[in-house]
Amino acid sequence: MFSVGFISPISPECLPNDNLLSHLLQIGVPELERLVDLRKRGWESDSLNDHFRRQRNTADTADDGMNAMWYRKMNRVFSELNHAAHFVPCSGSLKFLDLGCSPGGFSLYVLSNNNDATGIGISLSPVQGGHHFLLDEYLMRRYELILADIIQYNLGPAQAEIGTAEMRPLPSEIGGRDLVILDGHYLRTYLPASSESPNEWDRHRLLISQLIIALRSIKLGGSLVMKLSHPERIQTAQLLFLLDVLSKDLRTFKPRTIHANRGTFYAIAQGVGLGTQSAKQAEYLCDLEGLWYEISFGGENGRGRFLTKNDMDFVVSEEILTSEYAGRLIELGMDAWIVQGDALYRWLARKGLVY
């Protein structure tokens, strides 16, 4: 999630913060060492940067045909995820919530593979730069689409005063979900409902907003699927730790269907609310709501700010991550590192940059 969109010169993502990565490399993770070397070789060549720039341009200017292609591809991606973790039952009641649902490939998979499933999807309206929703008409009988800007939901602490008219309450019907899917990502085509220009830290607000909505809407023992990027980054590692201690089972999977050479992957948490620290779930949620308020209305001008290195220390500190959680983090990061490394190697080999 942190890799999506452009990076500002004042964004903390541009500042060196390689303590966790350095620790992982120091203790010896050959798969990560190989990936770091391949990334370095790629970024030393303009061709990799040009490749990703072309991908971004294609995504930003997608026509109906391209949207239809992504609809089918995302359906295949969710098939990969379910085959890896088996969280979509073939029958029986299944209420799910799909955040960032358009063009609808993930919802298509769930509804097509369980005739008893019913879903709600929330997606940015095309008027604001969102993708068109393409779910087949016959499946819409079991589905409700809500066109809304996720970062304009009021997700702050109950006692906080939100002084902006654009904020809206969460829809009450999204509660009690057996499955929550978090795949929303910041769109470079995004147009806020207000006349103001979007803030570069809105992508961080989107990340935290989705997690808050998930914890508010998921039922005890439900499943949560969340797209993340770069498990070796501090904030991603903290989010993995959070999902790990709140759920009965956490595994990760990097799809092979698309974006294999990029840093994105999916965390699949099952049995949410049944983990070793589930007694602290309400406390974690309260802290996330406070963080949402700070990155939405804090900062120098009261217009929000970027996430910083220590913002999620209430989940786990970097010291604990390196001293006590490194082994588990390596286990969770391995699939993403191997798959991206293999894909990058093949791509660089075709360009003659590795042999």
UniProtKB/TrEMBL annotation:
Under the heading Gene3D superfamilies, the entry gives:
3.40.50.12760
Q: Which InterPro entries match?
A: RNA_MeTrfase_FtsJ_dom (IPR002877), SAM-dependent_MTases_sf (IPR029063)
Signal peptide (from-to):
none
**Domain (Ribosomal RNA methyltransferase FtsJ): residue spans on this chain:** 92-269
Q: Which GO terms describe its molecular function?
A: methyltransferase activity
SUPFAM superfamilies listed in its UniProt record: S-adenosyl-L-methionine-dependent methyltransferases
What Gene Ontology biological process does one annotation of this record name? methylation
Name of the protein this chain belongs to: Ribosomal RNA methyltransferase FtsJ domain-containing protein
Q: What is the taxonomic lineage of the source species? A: Eukaryota, Fungi, Dikarya, Basidiomycota, Agaricomycotina
